Every structure is written in C-alpha cells, then in structure tokens.
Amino acid sequence: MRKFNHVIVKRPCKAMTEGITSGLYPGIPDFNLALKQHDAYIEALKQCGVDVTILPADENYPDPCFVEDPAVLTEKCAIITNPGAASRNGEKVSIEEAVRKFYPEDRIEHIISPGTLEGGDVMMCGNHFFVGRSARTNAEGIRQFTAILAKYGYTCSEVRLEEVLHLKTGVNYLENNNMLVSGEFINKPEFETYNKYVIPEEEAYAANCIWVNDTVIVPEGYPAVLEAVKAMGYKTITVDTSEFRKLDGGLSCLSLRF
Ligand code: CIR
User: Fold this and answer.
1) pLDDT tens readout for residues 25-83
2) I want to staple 250 with a disulfide (CB 3.0 to 4.6 A). Which of 123, 208, 215, 246 is the partner?
3) Which pLDDT score, from 0 to 100, does residue 90 have?
C-alpha cells in the first residue's frame, strides 16, 4: 500500500486577497480566518502520520499557499513545474529550495518553456499519472512530463479539460481503486475501470478530497460526499476551506504529499 511520509505546506500570505479567482465561489478571502483554517488543515495532516514541513508565507505572490501547483513529488523524483498562470510562475523558485531537502540533485527534474504544467492537473494512480490538458497545462508540458516520468518507470496519459480549472478540481483518486468523479469527468472513458463515486452537482467542490494514509480529508459542509467516503471504509477528517474556495483552491492544492 502507498504510504506518504512527508507533506509540505506554505502559510497563506496577506496578498491572498489578490489571488486568482474564477468567481465561482464569490467573496474576498478573510486572511485571519484563512490562517485558522490552515492551522486546522496542518493538524488534520499530522493526524494522518506524516511529518509536515511548514514554509513561511511568501508575500511576493498572491497564490503561493497552493503549493501543489509548482511541483509534483513522486517516490522516485521531484518535478518542478512551469506554472501556466503568469502571476504564479515565479513560485517554482522557492518551492524548489524546499524540495531540495528531500531529493538528491539528480532526481530533481524541470518542466521548461514553452511547456507549462501545474501540479493541480496531475493525478497519481499507483504508477500511472493522469494529467489534465487545461488552460494552465499545455501539450508541450505534458510531453516533457511524460518523458520525465518514463525515465523512472512511470506511465502517463492526458485527460482533456473543458470546464474546470485543474484535473483534480473535479476528480480525485482515493487509492484502493476508488475515485471521486464530478461534472465533465463522470463519463470519461479513462476512468471506466475505477470504482467511481459520482459527486452530486451541488457538492461539486468536494470532489477535491485527499487520501493520506487511509484517512480521507473532506472539505467541511458536504454531507453526501462525507457519507460516501465513510461508506467506502475510510477514516475521515473534515476541514473548513471556505476562504481558499473563494480562490478556487481546495484541499489537494494546499499541500504536497509524498
Ligand atoms: C489559481 O487560480 O491558481 C489559484 N487561485 C488556485 C489554485 C488551486 N490549485 C489547485 O487546484 N491545485
């Protein structure tokens, strides 16, 4: 069974009030409440048996607390991405510094321009990686990513996105062949062989749950998804992410788990 030992998070910054948002979940984030929610998120992760590296806030960018996007961390290598959102691209520099503590130099790979890729578009299912081709992740980014993964014995396939920000905005793997699927992903042939739980439309945000060592962290306020995840046999912890949701961010975006 997969086991995560480490998690990296980055504290929210005051500039988060300027973060990118689609406006799907309206409102300006309340910074102090976001800090409290981030504290609770860290506590939840600690309960899952991982050590948590907490990086300080970086006020140079509005969205760096969403650490999932500038890196993809696997058992065998780290891939520093090249975020497609211009205001986020520079986040890759400081995340690489943090990642260096965990991976030797020759296991740190890079996506380079004109390729773009964001970690929110990457879903790891065992040794296979699904990668979303989105407004943030382009064909060249996927080509480079696939070639890097192949060096380490991993496979990769592309999933076209039409509606949501990132692949994991709408589909998440909970190990044991279980997958949460919503919206445009419900009938994708790529996910046919998994045990799919179809997320009710009104709880679409909760498609973004995270599996951490047989506990599933579920966003607070989504009772149908919570019940479904419990029925799959997982321990669950709920965490309120209302302030991150206003920036289209969810539970997976807030950490790197490896
Ligand atoms: C953005 O639009 O880039 C941020 N406001 C939210 C990023 C969410 N990250 C993710 O889904 N992995």
Assistant:
1) 999 999 999 999 999 999 999 999 999 999 999 999 999 999 999 999 999 999 999 99
2) 208
3) 98
What is the predicted pLDDT for the residue at 172?
98
pLDDT at 96: 98
Q: Where are the domains of the chain?
A: 6-257
Low-confidence ranges of the chain (pLDDT < 50): none
Q: How far apart are CA 84 and CA 94, in angstroms?
A: 17
- At the top level of CATH, which class does the domain 6-257 belong to? alpha beta
Mutate to test the pocket of ligand 1, among 25, 247, 255 (most ligand atoms within 8 A of CB): 247
**Which residues does a 6 A CB cutoff place in the pocket of ligand 1?**
19-21, 63, 66, 68-69, 85, 88, 120, 165-166, 169, 247-249, 252-253
